[in-house]
């Protein structure tokens, strides 16, 4: 059994809580007093507290067709309309920042675009490695059963939750500032802060939190993540997923999302169309292969129906899970483009095949690093960061050409795709372009007063 002694990121103020001490868990005294009548008195997301709780609810219109208008209309309780989901998210996230729920101020972290063709992004985040608890993780199994004795999101305090995110049978998206939880009908899906954020607006999307799903992709949960990206309607919000063995730190199903106002390097990479199939409404669903990028990967896009795109990616992910291939997923372009990135870094690390120079950086390349946002823990690495450095690190992540060809063949079968003749070659030199986004990554300060 391959194992690595790892120190996972703290994603909740309750992650290090080993007892019922409210103050140690980060609960204010007045909050603890108010929660005495709620289950375990910690006002958590577990079955002890959630059934007697009321949380804000964003109910999205379950529409599989692309829409340019993601406006939220007034709800039945008279709450004023909100223009976009991201306005709600950012307002609530900034409210939690003002309340001191984060481990550090991520907006003070230095960030720069590294000179070069791709413009890799480097961030110096010296606070992210602090206050973590050591845990043994198996890295040789992508599928592992949920363990209620380990940290999971049912232990998160409700003050860390921004809102529920669930589908609405109505023809409009609606927001309710307070909505009773009915766990008899459905386990709620929630959006919560990551208390050790990588970037501005860093949140976790936790599907059906009370179902205690392990970290594995299924069709409905992945579709929920696509709806989240679509409903936010902001190309600077990306949604990411890490499987076990690809640097997921919590074995409880969750996606991550945050805002970064530059184009990710992976979004600039040239591609070659290699597979396709007819979608439900006749439009082609296309799968391309990344070219001239340090990590081999696939790009899914096209089709008229969101579920069609979602099912193709989810089926591919399920194949990788069942065949024990670690992977990362990046959902970009408001859910219209999805990068699937099988990787083997943890395996190589356990086998002693990663260079000492790379290991000393202590960077665990998960979805954000692979996409080109390098979160660095040491000042030296940040000051010396170059495109050659980023390329060398990410090259350690990629599957070999032989292994990747095998993955491509099996993804084609799993998703019902037809392999195409290579008639869509794109000139690699012409595909590297300068982003029109700002050349210095800035934290997105938006005029969005807190919503209560």
Note the topology:
Blueprint (H helix, E strand, L loop, with lengths): L2 E4 L22 H6 L19 E8 L23 H14 L11 E4 L7 E4 L10 E4 L22 E8 L5 E7 L9 E4 L9 E4 L12 H14 L4 E6 L12 E5 L5 H4 L2 E8 L5 E7 L7 E5 L3 H17 L4 E6 L4 E6 L2 H6 L5 H4 L7 H5 L1 E4 L2 H5 L3 H9 L5 H14 L3 E2 L8 H4 L21
Parallel strand pairs: 2-6, 4-17
Antiparallel strand pairs: 1-5, 2-7, 3-4, 6-8, 8-9, 9-11, 10-11, 10-15, 12-13, 12-18, 13-14, 14-16, 15-16
Helix pairs in contact: 3-5, 5-11
Q: What do you see in this structure?
A:
This protein has helices at residues 29-34, 85-98, 219-232, 265-268, 306-322, 345-350, 356-359, 367-371, 379-383, 387-395, 401-414, 428-431, and strands at residues 3-6, 54-61, 110-113, 121-124, 135-138, 161-168, 174-180, 190-193, 203-206, 237-242, 255-259, 271-278, 284-290, 298-302, 327-332, 337-342, 373-376, 418-419. It contains twelve helices and 18 strands. The chain has one domain: HIT family, subunit A, CATH 3.30.428. Strand 15 and strand 16 (337-342) form a beta hairpin. Strands 7-2-6-8-9-11-10-15-16-14-13-12-18 form a 13-stranded mixed beta sheet. With 452 residues, it is of the alpha+beta class. Helix 3 (219-232) packs across helix 5 (306-322) and helix 5 packs across helix 11 (401-414).
